[in-house]
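Help: why these numbers?

___
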Amino acid sequence: MENSYSSYIKQVERALSLPQSQKKELLRGFQAELKEKFPDPPSSERLLNDMGQPEEVASALLEAIDTTEYIRFNSIRLRWFRIAIVTLVLLAIIFIGTIVYLDASEVKRVDINIVQDSIPTWYSIDTEGK
């Protein structure tokens, strides 16, 4: 039944958007609280009934931490996300621009066919002696 503890804690962990160090600290305390409340490993149904959904537990745990650190962490994540998006857009523009430039500046192949003129010239008449 230890699996019900670990799967429930993993679900709570996925719902927390915190730095790894804070997440581990919160989860250690939460795990100790679970083991204190349930000396014998409960079923996953009992965990859900007594503790609530993992998302609700994660929200309650987030309320217990310092909000400035939470806001700072999420603002840093948002900043890196924006940097990644801008970088990808710039790379796409460079790629498309390069393709367009190379296509426009490409030397096109021209086939030249030399065809014999069917109308005789004076020179050809004179050389034959006519």
Notes: The two ends are 115 Å apart (CA to CA). The chain has a mean pLDDT of 80. The longest helix spans residues 67-105.
